[in-house]
Write a structure and sequence with these properties.
This protein has 337 residues and is an alpha/beta fold. The protein folds into two domains: 135 residues, no CATH class; 132 residues, Glutaredoxin, CATH 3.40.30.10. Helix content is 52%, strand content 10%. The protein contains 14 helices and seven strands. The strands form two sheets. A five-stranded mixed sheet has the order 5-4-3-6-7, covered by helices on one side. It has a two-stranded antiparallel sheet with strand order 1-2. The longest helix is centred in the N-terminal third of the chain and has 17 residues. The radius of gyration is 23 Å and the shape is globular.
């Protein structure tokens, strides 16, 4: 793995036009239907081969060669994105520096490949590269992706820098790359203003999957765990045994769980809940991510959890697994004493 300093040097050199070929933002809308169908079939073959590394590397090379020969076309953008996805999946960076060396700071390709970098560099190198790109890219989508990564990374810190997070969120709004990025920025600004630990959780009224009308204020005097999740969410599934244990241990001890599902199909959700005997309140939001309730709590990824105290104030956010169980055990024990 080449060091981040080597990568940064390549990017800097490309910005000053050292290379005779620089891929900038002037792309044709030309689509090569035949090659796009070939790429789709390639992914099907890879999936059937259980994501074979060797097969991905073969196709990654083919797609990269197509990109080199047809650089300024719409299909080439998809080809190089697929190459980066496959290099990321296999953690192979042999050609990464070659591509970065060819990209100008305003190239649309940044927006297609930047999300794959987390699999191509160590955590430290990845963050350093995102910091560099957030400052130097002029292509809006790629720049926004770098800024969003830094914002989420900072929020995972034990003691996030509030000034920095607010600045990064505002940048997302000001760059105005896509509706998604703007909504992310606005959502985090709302979270910083209204969803901090110690603040009153916003009240809401909704209906459970069995038609019962509930409001957050109904649970006054109790600890409430709001869990935003979905049956298709891989990281959500390991949380279910922990939630079941909490429900069974504390359902009569001023503790309630409200699951808020972002599933696409209500029947799928109902069947899933019945099979796993998830007996706490469950809400189905028909419009998913765009529903008022996920937006009210700035849900841009799941699982997302809010622990709310008997006074209605937010106690903790995004607890997982044993840490979540331990925290709730402690709080309920202290409350009962």
């Amino acid at each position: 793995m080449k060091t981040i300093f080597r990568v940064l040097l390549i990017v800097v050199l490309s910005g000053f036009g050292v290379q005779s070929i620089v891929y900038s933002q002037d792309y044709s809308s030309k689509v090569d239907t035949t090659f796009e169908n070939y790429m789709n079939k390639a992914w099907q073959e890879i999936q059937e081969a259980e994501m074979s590394d060797s097969l991905q590397l073969i196709y990654a090379k083919e797609f990269y060669e197509y990109f080199q020969n047809n650089p300024e076309t719409a299909t080439a953008r998809k080809a190089i994105r697929n190459s980066f996805m496959m290099w990321g999946n296999t953690k192979t960076s042999d050609h990464v520096d070659e591509v970065l060396k060819l990209l100008d700071y305003d190239s649309e390709i940044w927006g297609y490949i930047i999300f794959t970098f987390r699999n191509l560099f160590s955590a430290e190198e990845h963050k350093e590269l995102m910091e560099y790109l957030s400052e130097n890219l002029t292509e809006p989508r790629g720049k926004s992706e770098a800024v969003l990564f830094l914002l989420r990374s900072e929020l995972r810190e034990e003691d996030p820098n509030e000034e920095l997070t607010v600045d990064l969120a505002r940048q997302l709004v000001e760059i105005n790359a896509t509706d998604f990025h703007v909504q992310q920025g606005l959502g985090y600004l709302h979270e910083f203003e209204s969803l901090n630990i110690g603040q009153k959780a916003p009240d809401f009224t909704t209906r459970t999957i069995d038609g019962q009308k509930i409001s957050l204020s109904d649970f006054e005097g109790q600890f409430v765990l709001l869990e935003f999740w979905a049956t298709w969410c891989g990281p959500c599934i390991p949380e279910i045994p922990h939630l079941k244990a909490l429900h069974e241990n504390y359902q009569n001890e001023n503790f309630s769980i409200v699951g808020i599902s972002l599933d696409r199909d209500k029947n799928t959700l109902i069947n899933f809940i019945e099979e796993r005997e998830m007996e706490w309140n469950q809400v189905f939001v028909e419009e998913g991510w765009e529903s008022d309730l996920p937006r009210l709590f700035n849900v841009s990824g799941i699982p997302r959890m809010y622990l709310i105290g008997p006074d209605g104030n937010i106690i903790a956010r995004d607890l997982r697994g044993e840490e979540m169980v331990s925290k709730i055990d402690q709080l309920i024990s202290e409350h009962l004493d």
